Amino acid sequence: MDKPAVAAAAFDIFRAAPGTLWCFVTVTCADGAEGVGEATLHRRETEVSDRAAELLPHLLGEAARPQLVPACGPLTPLSEATVASALSQALWDIEGRR
To answer: Any idea what DSSP says for residue 70?
Structure first.
């Protein structure tokens, strides 16, 4: 069965308390299915946001499947691995809701 395409991918920062920021990646499919993954890297929110801005646009139009997540190795910058982890969570969240 073909997977619906990724229609939107967003990065958001939520202020949970003074000095506490939580970061999330949300993936929305063309069929309306939505998944969320957590991308918090304490005190490096701007770096993670910048990396998400680079990576997430490449997902648009691709089939929403967990294998879409780029592989990370030992030399992968931590901010990139954080976004990849959140993306994996979001895509598996979509799978679990289907």
So the answer is: P
